[in-house]
């Protein structure tokens, strides 16, 4: 099942929409249809959501196009019911650059709000307080007529405030980290920013119990996001100190492509290894993971040759490669093991589990 619908390209960046967004549009239509009891109100509701959708895309483009100035590409922009997400190839690590990339999203919404304010004042479209109260009471056509642009302006201001909450994963969290990075190392700045974010999140949860329950959800969302970012940065920091030779395993079992799965199962049960190289000492032609062995047994039976089940898209490494780079590649292509060569000589094997152990050991020692 594909969760994201491809909408097209904008400024050369692929634009996707999560399919749950369609449910949101349907729900908005029904809600407004029932409130106003007319097709026109239903459609107005949908038009309003689409207008917000456009503002969110512009916000994400604010991030992406600023990143492009620093030679950082954007893989895709995804629109979710809770907001947008610009997947940058990487986050800029220089504080000044991160600050610009993070702040330009909310700045776009400030510009949109100002633009709408100018239009509204020119057309006298700003509702009086009495009018607003009448509307709230009737609950009808809250976004109809001249109030459409006014409400769009309010939503943009809300987006600015919400995104500038100084906590990961909000833009404000990145702004805070960038500012802190001027005075301390990046990993320390991340930790401090994450702590501040989690403290704020707890305040939100408490405040939510007494005021608006939505604050509780926002608080939990921020709390998890802040912790995730801190642990991600910590892992990156640890890995950047190591090379492949530091995680190399020299004891390994080699299978032949002609071996059958029975032989692979034997190897699996004989020792601690869960992943195997396939080939000869001079030429590794594939890798076999435990998942693949189980899948192969299920689909092809125990007599099937290893060559039919192995993965061929493994990563070939050399001892001087950075662990961080290999780890990133393993995460993206999903192949968790590969051979290591020195001067075209096979010297060992590296798998993701071993890298994870390295991280765990370092985190434990760091305490
Ligand atoms: Zn943003």
Provide a descriptive summary of the structure in words:
A hairpin with a 2-residue loop joins strand 8 (337-342) and strand 9 (345-351). Helix 2 runs antiparallel to helix 3, helix 3 (95-123) crosses helix 6 (171-181) and helix 8 crosses helix 12 (352-366). The longest helix has 31 residues, at 39-69. It is built from 12 helices and 9 strands. With 367 residues, it is an alpha/beta fold. Helices cover 58% and strands 14% of the residues. The strands form 3 sheets. The protein has a 4-stranded mixed beta sheet. The protein has a 3-stranded mixed beta sheet with strand order 5-6-7. The protein folds into 3 domains: 4-164, no CATH class; 175-239; 244-366, CBS-domain, CATH 3.10.580.10. The mean pLDDT is 84. The chain has helices at 20-36, 39-69, 95-123, 129-138, 147-163, 171-181, 186-210, 214-239, 261-270, 290-300, 323-333, 352-366; strands at 4-10, 13-18, 74-80, 83-88, 254-255, 275-279, 284-289, 337-342, 345-351. Bound molecules: zinc ion.
- Kindly provide the radius of gyration, computed on alpha-carbon positions and rounded to a whole number of angstroms: 27 Å
Poorly predicted regions: none
Shape descriptor reads elongated
Widest sheet: strand ordering:
1-2-3-4
Order of helices and strands: EEHHEEHHHHHHEHEEHHEEH
Number of DSSP strand runs: 9
């Amino acid at each position: 099942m594909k969760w994201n619908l491809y909408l097209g390209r904008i400024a050369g960046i692929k634009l996707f929409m999560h399919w749950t967004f369609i449910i949101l549009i349907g729900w908005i239509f029904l809600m407004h249809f029932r409130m106003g009891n007319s097709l026109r109100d239903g459609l107005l509701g949908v038009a309003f959501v689409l207008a917000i959708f456009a503002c969110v895309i512009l916000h994400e483009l604010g991030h992406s196009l600023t990143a492009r100035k620093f030679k950082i590409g954007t893989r895709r922009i995804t629109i979710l019911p809770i907001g947008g997400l610009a997947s940058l190839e990487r986050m800029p690590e220089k504080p000044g650059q991160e600050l610009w990339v993070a702040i330009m999203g909310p700045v776009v919404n400030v510009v949109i709000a100002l633009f709408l304010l100018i239009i509204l004042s020119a057309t006298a479209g700003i509702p009086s307080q009495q009018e607003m109260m009448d509307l709230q009471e009737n609950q009808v056509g809250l976004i109809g007529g001249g109030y459409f642009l006014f409400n769009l302006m309010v939503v943009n201001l809300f987006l600015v405030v919400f995104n500038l909450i100084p906590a990961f994963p909000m833009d404000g969290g990145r702004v805070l980290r960038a500012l802190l990075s001027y005075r301390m190392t990046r990993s320390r700045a991340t930790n401090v920013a994450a702590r501040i974010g989690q403290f704020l999140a707890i305040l939100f949860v408490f405040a939510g119990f007494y005021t608006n329950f939505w604050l509780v959800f926002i608080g939990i969302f921020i709390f998890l996001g802040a912790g995730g970012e801190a642990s991600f940065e910590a892992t990156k920091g640890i890995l950047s100190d190591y090379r492949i030779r530091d995680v190399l395993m020299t004891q390994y079992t080699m299978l032949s492509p002609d071996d059958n799965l029975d032989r692979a199962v034997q190897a699996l049960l004989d020792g601690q290894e869960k992943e195997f190289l396939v080939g000869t000492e001079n030429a590794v032609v594939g890798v076999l993971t435990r998942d693949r062995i189980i899948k192969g047994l299920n689909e092809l039976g125990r007599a099937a040759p290893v060559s039919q089940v192995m993965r061929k898209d493994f990563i070939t490494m050399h001892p001087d490669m950075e662990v961080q780079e290999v780890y990133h590649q393993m995460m993206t292509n999903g192949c968790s093991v590969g051979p290591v060569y020195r001067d075209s000589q096979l010297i060992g094997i590296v798998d993701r589990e071993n890298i994870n152990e390295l991280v765990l050991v370092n985190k434990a020692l760091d305490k």
